[in-house]
């Protein structure tokens, strides 16, 4: 079976090369994760168009090859052994952005949120200020309904486009995407996001820029942006804050190996140097158990752990 899978993987990668997608073998996932953690994947394919993603994913499912889609890697934790399968990297080869009409921006899944926010600013469109500084891509932001400072993707997105494992492309409106707190239909369905359409009101260029600068300053002041992390490690419990609960449990600066509860913001787990996946998982479990014992609240992890197989 393993040899057969190897043959099928080779067949899939041959198709990718024929589609002029760049293929990297044994690519270290630590290079593609904001945690800077993770062993090699079997292969990484830089997908260069929605149509090619449709074709490749259909082929992968037909062949039985294990795959996953990866954007900016800002909310994932890869296994120390890596990923036994093919990663479809949706990045700079699929980051087209354009104006559909005077109030509507269309951005492909690989477009960084920073690029989307700056594009909105250039066109004096308001509503995306909250996302300025979130270190993810459009695809990842839709996948988890990214939000900060009172704003969420669900507030500004009009349509999302995705492909299913049969290679069919679909369009979903905001309601159909089931955008909730750090979740969406894409976290539950076998569908890969290819594009988002954002409808934004016209605003003042100076006001938008001022708000973006203000929120970026807040991030730099309060968050450990100078250290590798996956952002907020836990979802916000109803009526409380994960960071405060962790701090109240006396865990500020607590470490397991190279993984540490941030000294600057207890809601973040940082890689202070040489952290392994096992270090992070052990620290997450310790935090959850300690906070549960102290407060009765079980924190829900926001970081997606990706197993080796």
Question: Features of this protein?
Answer:
single chain; 309 residues; alpha+beta; Uridine Diphospho-n-acetylenolpyruvylglucosamine Reductase, domain 2; Uridine Diphospho-n-acetylenolpyruvylglucosamine Reductase, domain 1; 3 domains; five-stranded antiparallel β-sheet; four-stranded mixed β-sheet; 17 strands; globular
Radius of gyration over C-alpha positions, nearest whole angstrom = 20 Å
Estimate the global geometry from the Cα principal axes: globular
SS summary, helix count: 7
Strand content: 15-25%
Q: Report the CATH topology name of the largest domain.
A: Uridine Diphospho-n-acetylenolpyruvylglucosamine Reductase, domain 3
Overall SS class: alpha+beta
Strand order of the largest sheet: 6-7-12-10-11
Number of strands: 17
- Parts with pLDDT < 50 across at least 5 consecutive residues: none
Intertermini distance: 15 Å
Biggest sheet architecture: 5 strands, antiparallel
CATH architecture of the largest domain: 2-Layer Sandwich
The total number of structural domains is 3
* Portion of residues within helices: 25-40%
- Overall mean pLDDT: 95
Q: H/E series, N to C?
A: HEEHEEEEEHHEEEEEHEHEEEHE
CATH class group of the largest domain = Alpha Beta
């Amino acid at each position: 079976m393993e040899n057969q899978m190897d043959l099928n993987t080779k067949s899939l990668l041959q198709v990718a090369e024929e589609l002029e997608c760049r293929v990297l073998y044994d690519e270290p996932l630590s290079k593609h994760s904001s945690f800077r953690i993770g062993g090699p994947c079997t292969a990484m394919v830089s997908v260069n168009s929605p149509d090619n993603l449709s074709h490749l994913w259909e082929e992968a499912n037909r062949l039985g090859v294990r795959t996953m889609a990866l954007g900016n890697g800002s909310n994932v934790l890869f296994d120390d052994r890596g990923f036994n399968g093919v990663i479809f990297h949706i990045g700079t080869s699929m980051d087209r952005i354009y104006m559909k009409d005077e109030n509507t921006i269309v951005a492909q899944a690989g477009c960084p949120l920073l690029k989307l926010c700056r594009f909105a600013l250039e066109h004096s469109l308001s509503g995306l200020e909250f996302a300025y500084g979130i270190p993810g891509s459009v695809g990842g932001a839709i996948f988890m309904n990214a939000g900060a400072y009172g704003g969420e993707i669900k507030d500004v997105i009009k349509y999302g486009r995705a492909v299913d494992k049969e290679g069919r492309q679909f369009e979903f409106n905001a309601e159909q995407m089931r955008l909730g707190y750090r979740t969406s239909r894409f976290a539950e369905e076998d569908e890969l996001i290819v594009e988002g359409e954002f409808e934004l009101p016209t605003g003042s260029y100076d006001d938008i820029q001022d708000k973006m600068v203000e929120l970026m300053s807040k991030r730099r002041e309060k968050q450990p942006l100078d250290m590798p992390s996956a952002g907020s490690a836990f979802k916000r419990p109803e009526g409380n804050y994960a960071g405060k609960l962790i701090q109240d449990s006396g865990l500020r600066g607590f470490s397991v190996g190279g993984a540490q509860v941030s000294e600057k913001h207890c809601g973040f787990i940082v890689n202070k140097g040489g952290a392994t996946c096992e270090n992070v998982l052990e620290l997450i479990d310790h935090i959850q158990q300690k906070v549960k014992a102290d407060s009765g609240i079980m924190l829900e992890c926001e970081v997606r752990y990706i197993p080796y197989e």
